[in-house]
Amino acid sequence: MLNYTLRRLAFAVPTLLVISFIIFALLDLAPNDPTGNLPLTIPPEVREEIRRSLGLGEAFPIRYLKWLQQFMVNEPLNLIERILGIEIGNSAERLRVRSWVTRSPVVDLVVERLPQTLLVVGMGYVAGILIALPIGVVSAYRQYSWFDQIGTFVSMVGFSVPTFFTGVLLIVIFSVHLGWFPSIYDTMHQVTHLPSFWVQVRQMVLPVAVLGLYNAAQLSRFVRASMLDNLGQDYVRTARAKGMRERVVLFIHVLRNSLVPVVTVIALGIPTVFSGAIITEQIFRVNGLGQLLITAIQGADIPLVQTLTFIFAVLIVFFNLIADLLYGMLDPRIRYE
Amino acid sequence: MKRLIAILAQAATIAVVSAGAAHADRGSDGHLNILYWQAVSILNPFLSGGNKDVHGASLVIEPLASYDEAGNIVPALAAEIPTPANGGVAKDLKSITWKIKPDLKWSDGTPFTAHDVVFTAQYCMHPDGGCQQAAKFTDVEKVEAVDDLTVKVTFSVTKPFPYGPFVGSESPIIQKAQFQGCLGPKAPECTEQNFHPIGTGPFAVTEFRANDVVSLKANPQYRDPAKPAFATVTLKGGGDAASAARAVLETGEFDYAWSLLVEPEILEQMVAAGRGTLATAFGPSVEYIEVNLSDPSPAKGALRSTREGGPHPFLTDPAVRRALSMAIDRQAIVEVGYGPAGKPTCNLLSAPEIYASTANDWCLKQDIDGANRLLDEAGWVRGSDGVRAKDGVRLSLLYQTATNSVRQGTQALVKDMWSQIGMETELRNVDAAVFFGGDPGSPDTAHKFYADVQMYTNNFPGTDPERYLSYWHCDEIPTPANNWLGNNMQRFCSDEYDALVAEMAQTADLAARAETAKRMNDVLVGQGIIIPLVHRGSMSAHSLTLEGVRMNAWDSELWNAADWTRRK
User: Fold this and answer.
1) What is the pTM of this model?
2) Contact assignment for A103 to B212 by CB distance below 8 Å
3) What keywords would UniProt list here (chain A) (predicted)?
4) Mind listing the pLDDT tens digit for each residue in A136-150?
């Protein structure tokens, strides 16, 4: 297992290098201009100066290598310095990946955005799992019952209705008409005591509900299908024949085995938590990583888009590995040698 | 009777209280929530030309003078506006001397002096700084501090309108002590300074999160001890215009929302909720169609859309250009796409008032019959497919614009109107960042103009149109030789017009300038080089409890935030 893990990790390095090159090249070759969104009142000579000051004058391979060095070496060093509070080498002179729009280091922006994304999108994911499990289990156990029919209906709705619709719908009902929850998320809010915790809960309800519904819809289908597969297996009949109670059969035998593929699916979905929920973050102004990415794309902020996309790529490669390893641990029949 | 007296007494108390509120103490009105659906990215306007950033920064840093809502220049940090009459502008029109208000302090308590103003000019004029407001400092030869409270700006040419540098929120004064390590190539690296500038404005930054939110508090050193009325401000960003309007007009979570490009009927519904109101202001922005006088046919190869490539097969015919304009129902375009944020216009210069010509008002009324007659007389005959042609040239247009739902709606309307006069129109839209981007490698830019007509909104900074009108000088034509830089997209070239450009540069008297500007406008519009459609206003929403908003199209919308108060 350890051998396998090491091999996979070693293989991830060239994979990521290729990915980084593709991302950088694609974005660089795309017709785009950082000064494109500036007011027309800015004359072309000034635009040319701006492009030059952003480092666009250099050749493509040089810019790629520079970015690679900044991202792979300089930024990790800065992070280590920040966490440990020490200084390694001449950190003031170290070139950093800078956003063209905010002119600040990209990694600082990402660090600033992580808390709200993890909290809101992460909670939406957790809520989705918590809703999906019971619905999936009961739906499978009582297949074609009214509960299963309703569960199927709800998950079909949750799956097919886009979040930009459910989000606005919830705002119109709960913010405009009932006035129960705020429609705008306050990223500066600090939880210090019970009332402020309550404020935080209230402002998270709507976005988490939107994401929870969406995630639950997908996952509950997985749980149901996996449960159905296992319920028909011989070992279930054997367990029942041994005189096991139905509860033990269902929760100990069937559920455990059914969760093996579900856990993999959940692990594979974790990178999407980090990449944020672009639409939901926009609607509720959670302003996390998803919103950061979309504003960067709209503003032609290439270094920010390149870096964010690459971070997502790293996370996807990493969680693929985790999912594979988890699968091996949960199902002892699987061996990677 | 007793009850009546009681009511009167109560009314009197209320009157006293509300009168008192107008002269409230600094910070007595609590918290102000402002929503910009495009979040503020940076608080240094010299490194960002975006309106959202300029507006955000205008709460913190101020210019020497601002534009009020009528477009007049009013003093901010300056004691008075220098003019030729008061001797502030030199007789040869080559220098301007600003007097600064005495005893001004930065929010950190240090004194504000002329040296900060001089430094600001150095900062923006540094060749390696990539200053996005460099145009404000065009032709500036030197900026010097005569004494601590006097600044003299010298120009290399005669400047009849010397109010470029340090006027308006795009050109505010930054603190020398804070920014002196940030000159030239160091400018973008000064994240701390760019995010937390020290200013003289009504508010000071307490926390800044790029592309998300700015927290501010009342500046303790602000020059008017009774202002600002609000103790703290949140300037939140993100989302879209419709939901920003909702947050002010329907849920009341925010007090002010900026730039509401929302379908008119949706806004109407929201206003009906009774929590807020819309504020509009009309500045220089005009949505217009421009015609290509050169031949954009791909067959021309490298000479495509250049004067060398030859004239346009039919848009060089004045009758065709005139007919294009006559056939358009501008009122319909405004009603469908703009609502209260637009007015039909027949002028390139629709504001300020003194520059608005009336010579072209015939275009306000759609005249399909007249247009048809004009084309008949010019010899353009309808073929069997309903499209007019002459000598084998069909009146078939490629009409391009930036991607934007309102623009695509306008395109569809105009296409229909043109079909009624026997014109065939093909529509095309290009992503705004590419269309306006001016990337010489892209074939889809407004500058290359590989189409017959194109539409967008253009405007000019401040209130003086001299530079704007010089866009249509022969020298401004984008060509492969100048890397497609230049603003004369039409490839319009006339000695008459170039002479007017030269005349404008030598005219100092405001009334005479206005007269010349109108003549230039009438050349461009009268000859159909530019087909104006809509005079576009900016529209924002504010809560009914927020008072003192004076919506401004010439400067930052938040220009007078120091005077905003909460109705009690």
Assistant:
1) 0.84
2) no
3) Cell membrane, Membrane, Transmembrane, Transmembrane helix, Transport
4) 999 998 889 999 999
